Amino acid sequence: MFQAGQKIVYPLHGAGYIEEIEDTENGEYYIIRIPTGNVMIRIPRIGAERTGIRLPEEKTAVEETLVRIGKSRPVLSENWNLRYKENFIRLKTGRLDQAAEVIKVLYEQEKKKKLSSAECRIMGMARQIVLSEIISVYEINSENAEELLAKWLEN
Which fold would CATH assign to domain 59-153? Predict the structure, then answer.
């Protein structure tokens, strides 16, 4: 169970924190604030883990993941529709490595050919998720997080 004030990562939205735990006649709810995009999410406390909500990674794990993804050479599907479905499934996991993999796949694809508008949107979602976790874990601003992500992707 999570506590009020605790940092978390919510799938498809990114890093945020438990703003409060609301007690209603229908049960307890986590009120989650995602600063990137100023998103507020309300989910039942019971079963919250099934949504994929998790604690942020440690600094070393974030760096190791992003360095490894940066060095990887993903196999790209030529079918954009299949690539989109695979990438969306990765994002839904809520895992940092999967979101970073989406960025890397689309980054490499963009070098070859312009991305579709759907792929641009999914890349934006993946970037938001990864950047929000970098910002949360390293406690830095978005500019510095962008620089770190760019450095890791260029490996």
Answer: Methane Monooxygenase Hydroxylase; Chain G, domain 1 (1.20.58)
